[in-house]
Design brief:
three-stranded antiparallel sheet; single chain
Amino acid sequence: MEHKCGKCEYYNALYLKVYCGFINSDCGYCVVSQSAKSKNDCCKHWTKQIPEVFDGAKYKKVFESTLTQLNGITIILNELTEQLNSNKE
């Protein structure tokens, strides 16, 4: 595997705005050396990019919390609907 800046964790690519969106340019910025770099350059600060790992437990916790909040809202709305219906009668 080649140690090119474009595949480094510290490399931030520069994107150019075009008519239909954004395109990736051939240069970017190195956070460590604080300088502009070509994506094909090599330097001593190269570090492998760490892929983001899917954490199912974290998402399950968030979904359970959201479901609990939605159930609470449903109960409140049902009670308000019952109060409105009883007031109309």
